[in-house]
Each structure stands twice: as structure tokens, then as C-alpha cells.
């Protein structure tokens, strides 16, 4: 089982390859969209590279559950409702949603995913605890 440092290094390498960014830019606090320039199509490539690097399966919607953002039960007037936030927390336990909950505009959710969130996601899939 890889260590947390090894998980970060593989994710860093995957993001450098997928996004064409410099290794130094891929830091835990860097956001995929805002800091590293990822676009929606890149998330498929990133998921594929992570599957390959860690020998895991990432079903569509597991890393980023878009279905919540299109469900009227969870979204009203372009904002995620309390029920939607609860569902996001349940389905994305790896993501730090603290800033998003202050102004939960649907389009902003994709902008908050960080490298650290990706690391926590992979660590969770692999059962890495140290």
C-alpha cells in the first residue's frame, strides 16, 4: 500500500501529464480549475490516469457527482440546497466544502476541488491511513 507521500507524487505526475502544468504548480492547496486550468473534459482524463496509476476503478460520478447539481431536489435558483449540501458531503467526504457552503452557487463547486481533495479521494479508495 502506498504512503500519503507516494499518493501525492503519483497524483502530481498524473496532473502534470493531463494538464500540461509544471510539477511545482501541483501543490496540495492548488485548485484543479482555478490554479491548474483544468476544464470539464480534463476530469475524464484525470480519472483515467488515476485509475491506471493506482490500479483502481472510478465509476462515473464518484469523483464528481454531477447528478446532484442537476437534481431539482438539491438545487434551487442556481444554488445547492441544504439537502444538496448534505448529499454532497455524503458522496464527497474527501472534499473540503467549507468555503462552498458559504455561497453554494452550482457553477462554483467544480472550482473548489483541490489537489489535496484528489489525494484524500485516492487514499480513501486505497485505504491509506498513514
List keywords for this structure.
130 residues, mainly alpha, Non-ribosomal Peptide Synthetase Peptidyl Carrier Protein, Chain A, 2 domains, 7 helices
Describe the structure.
The chain is mainly α and 130 residues long. It has 2 domains: 1-60 and 113-130, Orthogonal Bundle (Non-ribosomal Peptide Synthetase Peptidyl Carrier Protein, Chain A); 65-112, no CATH class. 51% of the residues lie in helices and 3% in strands. The protein has helices at residues 4-19, 40-54, 66-69, 82-91, 98-102, 109-112, 115-126; strands spanning 75-76, 79-80. Strands 1-2 form a two-stranded antiparallel sheet. Strand 1 (75-76) and strand 2 form a beta hairpin. Helix 1 (4-19) packs across helix 2 and helix 1 (4-19) packs across helix 7 (115-126). The protein is globular.
Describe, in short, the structure shown.
With 130 residues, the protein is mainly alpha-helical. It has 7 helices and 2 strands, in the order αααββαααα.
Secondary structure: elements and pairs:
Elements: H1 4-19, H2 40-54, H3 66-69, E1 75-76, E2 79-80, H4 82-91, H5 98-102, H6 109-112, H7 115-126
Helix pairs in contact: 1-2, 1-7
Strand content: under 5%
CATH arch. level architecture of the largest domain: Orthogonal Bundle
Level-1 CATH class name of the largest domain: Mainly Alpha
Strand order of the largest sheet: 1-2
Structural category: mainly alpha
The number of helical runs is 7
Largest sheet: 2 strands, antiparallel
How is the quaternary structure best described? single chain
Q: How many runs of DSSP E, i.e. beta strands?
A: 2
Helix content: 40-55%
CATH topology of the largest domain: Non-ribosomal Peptide Synthetase Peptidyl Carrier Protein, Chain A
- Compute the gyration radius: what is it? 15 Å
> What's the order of the H and E elements?
HHHEEHHHH
Task: Give the N-to-C terminal Cα separation.
Answer: 10 Å
In round numbers, the mean pLDDT is 93
Q: Give the name of the CATH superfamily of the largest domain.
A: ACP-like
* Broad shape: globular
Which regions contain 5 or more consecutive residues with pLDDT less than 50?
none
| Structural domain count | 2
Amino acid at each position: 500500500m502506498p504512503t500519503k507521500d507516494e499518493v501525492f507524487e503519483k497524483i502530481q505526475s498524473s496532473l502534470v501529464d493531463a494538464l500540461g502544468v509544471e510539477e511545482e504548480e501541483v501543490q496540495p492547496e492548488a485548485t484543479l480549475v482555478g490554479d491548474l486550468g483544468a476544464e470539464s473534459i480534463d476530469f475524464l482524463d484525470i480519472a483515467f490516469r488515476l485509475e491506471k496509476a493506482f490500479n483502481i476503478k472510478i465509476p462515473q460520478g464518484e469523483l464528481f457527482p454531477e447528478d446532484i447539481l442537476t437534481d431539482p431536489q438539491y438545487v434551487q435558483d442556481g444554488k445547492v440546497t441544504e439537502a444538496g449540501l448534505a448529499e454532497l458531503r455524503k458522496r464527497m467526504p474527501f472534499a473540503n466544502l467549507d468555503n462552498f457552503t458559504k455561497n453554494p452557487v452550482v457553477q462554483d463547486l467544480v472550482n473548489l476541488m483541490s489537489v489535496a481533495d484528489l489525494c484524500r479521494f485516492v487514499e480513501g479508495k486505497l485505504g491509506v491511513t498513514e
